[in-house]
Amino acid sequence: RKEVEQDPGPFNVPEGATVAFNCTYSNSASQSFFWYRQDCRKEPKLLMSVYSSGNEDGRFTAQLNRASQYISLLIRDSKLSDSATYLCAVLEHNAGKSTFGDGTTLTVKP
Amino acid sequence: DADVTQTPRNRITKTGKRIMLECSQTKGHDRMYWYRQDPGLGLRLIYYSFDVKDINKGEISDGYSVSRQAQAKFSLSLESAIPNQTALYFCATSDLRLDRNEQFFGPGTRLTVL
Q1: Which end of chain B is more exposed for a tag (fewer CB within 10 A), N or C?
Q2: Pairs of CB atoms within 8 A across A/B
């Protein structure tokens, strides 16, 4: 079993749709959680960190469920420009390295 | 100017050749990482370094070696390249002093081994 698992998709949604991605992790010692966005053939860039109480940044909402060991990303009112691959990552501070999921591909269509 | 740079950006080589990929950063971060990315497989950690004197193997270090020449430079070598090392390689940095310890990635090196 992979340490971090994501639904690979692809997710194909119309503009304006709401879409949610989930990511599960197996290492209960994980302490920090992130969502990265990666455009085709480009480097991943941090979209948002995920805080225990949940956090929102515009149309994006991230949630953490430590008991069930998963994080989620909700995108509301999808835009064409949201089309990308979304990678979740978990960090165990003692180990000092992040483990990434394989990514979920989103395509937003007109 | 980019904070994390990688050279070369693209490289085509032949089986058995020695290849070095270089990474430099101006962010002043202490931690540096090398990942490879294959289609549909996400990012897999090759090596990482917490400072100049600290080098650690990641999950797929076989066939690779690294050198941390300075805080700002971290090089990845393929001693004898083979076709299944064809991939997109990313260097990344992070700083434990930052609140969340996110990673900052270079633009990537696309390596093809024939």
Answers
A1: N
A2: 51
B39-88 pLDDT, tens digit per residue, is 877 899 999 999 999 999 999 999 999 999 999 999 999 999 999 999 99
pLDDT, mean of residues B95-113: 87
Cβ separation B100–A97 shorter than 8 A: no
Residue with tokens 């069930």: A68
Supply φ then ψ for residue B84, to 5 degrees. -80, 5
Q: Which residue of B has its CA nearest to A31?
A: B100
Residue B15 distance to chain A (closest CA, Å):
24
Burial string for B12-25 (b: 16+ CB within 10 Å, else e) reads ebeeeeebebbbbb
Q: Which of B63, B1, B59, B5 is nearest to B32 (CA)?
A: B5
Alpha-carbon distance B96 to nearest alpha carbon in chain A (angstroms): 8
Rounded Cα–Cα distance for residues B89 and B106 (Å)? 9
The count of other CB atoms within 10 Å of the CB of residue A77 is 11
Instruction: Enumerate chain A positions whose Cβ falls within 8 A of a Cβ in B.
Output: 8, 32, 34, 41-46, 49, 87, 89, 91, 93, 96-103
Query: Which pLDDT tens digit goes with each residue over A33-48?
Result: 999 999 998 999 999 9
